[in-house]
Specification:
Helices cover about 35% and strands about 25% of the residues. It is α/β, with parallel strands linked by helices. The strands form 2 sheets. The protein has a 6-stranded mixed beta sheet, sandwiched between helices. The chain has a 4-stranded antiparallel beta sheet with strand order 2-1-4-5, covered by helices on one side. The protein starts with 10 loop residues before the first helix and ends in a 5-residue tail after the last helix.
Length: about 280
């Protein structure tokens, strides 16, 4: 099976979104990336460039490979038996697909926040300090924990109960605790796989505000089923779709369109994108 190569986003897409600012450098890049789970092709010929210090959203119908693509960026798919990928995948212009790449070290630089908050059954302090400690952090741990919690907009909520269990926090607080835990390892990129899907509207708004604050220091890639959220928080949006030419019921994801978020939602170029964002498919 073959699918025409998906073009990497043209610079015009970024420039039209923010015409008065310089084109940001690319931090993550995929070219002709395909992913299999066992014999089943999940993503075919994906090409995309992720700009630094921007929020890039991945949207599309269920089963089109958004989370699979997200997990490629820090090699999380390596942990799934039978998963393999082909094509080019770079981080800061360095190949990250080869067998000699230290995936654990890569994940320190490209952190991940999951759909369901997953704090450790430890104190709030230990949750934040854990990753830094196992990675050999030798600085002031108290300062690192406070700084990470402040960056995650959680310090004021928990500063008087750092020895309490992270499991005692509300769902929204737990998700921000997980973000603080990720920040404590001092990554360059943060991947977020539907980080608000289990949260109430108030907690969702706080996480969205946090993402906007964090993009000054970090590159963020978020998978979301909430198109309003994608439109609110992201600078760039990629719309993934299922390959209509696939046979035998295979669900194979491709990128239908990738552009500045405001352009994609107001003037989509691909009819599949327009059908999805207007609710005619999905």
């Amino acid at each position: 099976m073959s699918v025409p190569e998906s073009p990497i986003a043209a610079p015009e897409a970024l420039e039209s979104h923010s015409p008065t600012t310089a084109l940001p450098p690319i931090v993550l890049s995929a070219r002709n990336l395909s992913v299999w789970y066992g014999p089943s092709l999940a993503l075919n010929q994906i090409s995309i460039e992720i700009p630094r210090n921007r929020i890039t959203a991945l949207i599309g119908p269920s089963g089109c490979g958004k989370s699979t693509l997200l997990r490629c960026f820090n090699r999380m798919n390596d942990l799934i038996p039978g998963a393999r990928m082909e094509g080019e995948l770079t981080f800061d212009n360095e190949d990250i697909t080869g067998p000699k790449v230290d995936a654990v070290a890569l994940r320190r630089r490209i952190g991940m926040v999951f759909q369901k908050p997953n704090p450790f059954p430890k104190s709030i302090y230990q949750n934040v300090a854990w990753g830094a400690k196992i990675n050999g952090y030798r600085g002031d741990m108290d300062e690192l924990v406070e700084r990470s919690l402040r960056r995650a907009a959680l310090w004021d909520d928990v500063k008087g109960k750092l020895n309490s269990s992270g499991l005692d926090l509300s769902g929204g607080q737990q998700q921000r605790l997980c973000i603080a835990r990720t920040l404590a390892v001092e990554p360059e990129v943060i991947l977020m796989d539907e980080p608000c899907s289990a949260l109430d509207p108030i907690s969702t708004a706080r996480v969205e505000d946090l993402m906007d604050d964090l993009k000054d220091e970090y590159t963020i890639v978020i998978v979301t089923h909430n198109m309003q959220q994608a439109r609110r928080v992201s600078d760039m949006t990629a719309c993934l779709m299922l390959d209509e030419s696939s046979r035998d019921g295979q669900r194979i994801g491709i990128i239908a369109e990738f552009s500045a978020t405001d352009l994609l939602f107001t003037n989509p170029k691909d009819p599949r994108t327009e059908a999805y964002i207007t609710g005619r498919i999905g």
